[in-house]
Specification:
The chain starts with 10 loop residues before the first helix and ends in a 10-residue tail after the last strand. It contains three helices and 13 strands; from the N terminus they run H-H-H-E-E-E-E-E-E-E-E-E-E-E-E-E. It is globular. It is an alpha/beta fold. The N terminus is likely disordered.
């Protein structure tokens, strides 16, 4: 006799699967108000979304060299990543809200799959040895408040898709090898208050409209090919 769907899962995942099934069956029968919050919380914390986040983080881990073993606790057999070191979750939903990988001697590339962490608010991956581009998929992180990728070896353009991050307040990508123009889409971010793009190889002119109007010019220092602030009404200088 073959294994059931639940028995084919790891033990922790099977337990969560059965818990959700029980909750779904009992929910319509429950008239006791004190039980309803438990059922709702169980359904919200179902393994489906959590397992997607496990997959995304494991893709990120596979793309990184980790000589110090700091990501050893990242176990794909767990039903969610909330017990992993350097990962923070919302207590009510078990969704990942923070990724703290700063100053861990990591190298490799940023995984596009990190763009699937829909509830992520803080991505802190500064002061490592990362290379390669910033994935355009990061523009899907609609709840992101802070993106800190400074002091790495990240190259390529700043994705214009970051202009979708309407919750973003802090954008620090200084001390990398970024090239190309500063995307004008970023000037439309309503909550952006801190920007640092200094010490890269950006080109063109510095936006001075929208959210960039009050960003100090020293936030763009040491980009030899930047030609200074844009002139209102004038076409942007070619890179």
């Amino acid at each position: 006799m073959g294994p059931t769907a639940a028995s084919a899962l790891p033990l922790s995942a099977a337990a969560a699967f059965l818990l959700v099934v029980v909750a779904a069956v009992l929910a319509p029968l429950m008239d006791d108000f004190w039980l309803r919050p438990w059922v709702a919380a169980t359904l919200v914390a179902s393994p489906a979304s959590a397992n997607e986040e496990v997959d995304a983080l494991m893709a990120a881990k596979r793309g990184l060299e980790d000589p110090g073993g700091v990501l050893a606790s990242w176990d794909p057999n767990l039903v969610n990543p909330c017990t992993w070191f350097h990962v923070t979750c919302d207590d009510a939903t078990n969704r990942v809200t923070r990724l703290d990988l700063t100053d861990l001697n990591l190298s490799g590339r940023l995984a596009p799959e990190l763009g699937k962490l829909e509830k992520l608010q803080y991505m802190e991956i500064a002061r490592n040895n990362l290379q390669g581009p910033i994935p355009p998929e990061f523009g899907n992180l609609g709840n992101l408040i802070s993106l800190d990728l400074y002091n790495n070896g990240i190259s390529g353009p700043i994705p214009h898709t970051l202009g979708n991050l309407k919750s973003l307040r802090f954008l620090r990508v200084d001390h990398n090898r970024l090239t190309g123009p500063i995307p004008r889409e970023l000037t439309g971010l309503p909550n952006l208050v801190v920007v640092d793009m200094s010490n890269n190889d950006l080109c063109g002119t510095i936006p001075r409209s929208g959210s960039f109007a009050n960003i100090p010019l020293n936030s763009f220092a040491n980009n030899p090919r930047l030609k200074g602030p844009e002139v209102p009404g004038a076409a942007d200088s070619d890179c």
